[in-house]
Design a protein that fits this description.
Chain A is α/β, with parallel strands linked by helices. In chain A, about 35% of the residues lie in helices and about 20% in strands. Chain A has one domain: Alpha-Beta Complex (putative 2-phosphosulfolactate phosphatase). The first copy, chain A, has a five-stranded parallel beta sheet, with helices on both faces. In chain A, helix 5 packs across helix 6 and helix 6 packs across helix 7. The interface between A and B is large, with 54 and 53 residues. Chains A, B: Belongs to the ComB family.
C-alpha cells in the first residue's frame, strides 16, 4: 500500500484484528471489542452464560486457575485442545450445559481465547462472540453506535479461518453506511460469503481439519458452527464475564 | 482453533505471512521468502531489474539511503506515498524505465517493502514478487522444491488486500499435491479467485481506494496490476537485489 492520507470522518469503524499479535495496531480504548475463538472457548462461554452460569472468570495461566481450588468454583483448563489434568473440564461446549453450570462460577483458562480477552482489557467494553449468539450480538453492536474491533484469537498468534469467517459474519450483519471497514474486515466478509452456505465444508479445507478429526472433537466442532442457538451476550465486568 | 497435533510430513509448505508483524511465527531459515508490496515497492523493483538496473540496494532508513550521496548510485526514497525531498525518485514504477535505470545501481527505501525485506533476512533465499512477474516467479518457485513463505508487506504492519491477493495468485499457481497450505494461504487463494477477473474493481472496495485516488497515482496502480509484464526475478544477493 502506497499511502494512507488521514481521512477525517465521523463514521464509525469496524476493524478485524486477525490475530492477537496485531492488537497493538488497534485503538482499543475507543472501541467495543468482540473476542472470537470459535473452536471452542468463546462458543463454550456463550453456551455457559446462556445456560445460567453466574459468571465465567477468564484467566491466562493454568496456575491462576488452580489457585481457585477450594472456592466452590468450577475450574476449567484447556491446553493444546485437551483438559489439563486435575481440572473439572476444558473448553468443550458439552461441559457447559444447564445441569453442570447453572448458578455456578467457572474459572477458565484456554490456549488462545482467554489470552485474547486479557490482551484486550484496555477496550471500552469486551463482549464474547460465536456463531451461537451471532444475531443477538450483531444487533446489540448496531444499537451501541461505537467503533468495533473484532478480535480473532487464532492459534498461538497465527491467523485461522474459523475465527476470521465468524468475524466476517458479524461484518456482514453490521454492514451499512454507518461503518467504515478496514481491509481485514472486507476480506473477512468476503470469506464468510464464500463459506456461509456450508461452513463445515468450507472449514474442512483448513489446514487443521485432519488434525481436529484426530482429536475426536467433531461433535464439538459441529455444535460450535450452529447459528443463533443462544441469545445471551457475555460481557466482561471487572474480572468476570457475565450476562449482559 | 482447538488444537494442532504435530503432523509429520515430507510435503513442502506454502505459508502466507499476512503482515511483517507476524514474521516471528514463521521459520524463515528453512524457506524461500517472497516479499510482496504491490503498491508499489516490489512492482517497481521487478520493473527496474527487468529494465536492466544492475542492482537495487534496499535499505530501511532514509538516512542510510542519503549516505550513498556522491557514489554515483540513484537514490530512491519514499515515505507515506511521496518522494522524500532531496532524492532522485520514490517508488513509482515509471521512474524505473530502461532509460533511467539501465546499468545503474539504485539505493531504495520505502515505507513497507524494504522494511519487510530487512525483516526476512534470515530466510534461505529472498526473492521479490509482483503481478508483473507472477508466472515466471511461480514457475521458479515450483522448480525450487523448497518451503515457501509469501510475506505481505502490508501497510505499517497492517493487513492489506492487494498484497494478500497477490499472495493468493502465487498460491493458486503453485497449488498441487506437493504443498501443504496454512490457513492464511487458503484464505489468500480464495480472495484471489474472487478478485482475479477484475483486480482493480475488487481492490476499489479497499479502505484505501479513495485515499489512493487523492494521491494521483492511479496510473501507477493500474500498471502494478498488469500480469506478466516482466519475467525477471529479483533475488537478494548479499545486500543487493539482482537479477536471478
Amino acid at each position: 500500500m502506497s499511502k494512507i492520507v488521514s481521512l477525517k470522518s465521523d463514521r464509525l469503524k469496524v476493524e478485524v484484528c486477525l490475530t492477537p499479535a496485531l492488537l497493538p495496531l488497534h485503538k482499543l480504548e475507543n472501541s467495543v471489542v468482540v473476542v472470537i475463538d470459535i473452536f471452542r472457548a468463546t462458543s463454550s462461554i456463550c453456551y455457559g452464560i446462556e445456560n445460567g452460569a453466574e459468571a465465567i472468570i477468564p484467566v491466562s495461566h493454568v496456575e491462576e486457575c488452580a489457585a481457585y481450588h477450594g472456592t466452590g468454583h468450577l475450574l476449567a483448563a484447556e491446553r493444546d485442545g485437551e483438559v489439563v489434568e486435575g481440572f473439572d473440564f476444558g473448553n468443550s461446549p458439552f461441559a457447559y450445559t444447564p445441569e453442570k453450570v447453572a448458578g455456578k462460577t467457572i474459572v477458565l483458562t484456554t490456549t488462545n481465547g482467554t489470552h485474547a480477552i486479557q490482551l484486550s482489557r484496555s477496550a471500552k467494553r469486551i463482549v464474547i462472540g460465536s456463531f451461537l449468539n451471532l444475531s443477538s450480538l450483531s444487533q446489540w453492536l448496531k444499537d451501541e453506535h461505537e467503533n468495533i474491533i473484532l478480535v480473532c484469537a487464532g492459534w498461538k498468534n497465527n491467523f485461522n479461518l474459523e475465527d476470521t469467517i465468524f468475524a466476517g459474519a458479524v461484518v456482514h450483519q453490521l454492514k451499512d453506511e454507518k461503518y467504515i471497514l478496514d481491509d481485514a474486515a472486507i476480506a473477512a466478509e468476503d470469506l464468510y460469503l464464500l463459506a456461509k452456505n456450508d461452513l463445515a465444508g468450507f472449514l474442512s479445507k483448513s489446514s487443521h481439519s485432519e488434525r481436529l478429526k484426530k482429536l475426536g472433537i467433531e461433535e464439538d466442532i459441529a455444535f460450535c458452527l450452529k447459528i443463533d442457538e443462544t441469545s445471551a451476550i457475555p460481557v466482561l465486568d471487572g474480572d468476570k464475564l457475565v450476562k449482559l
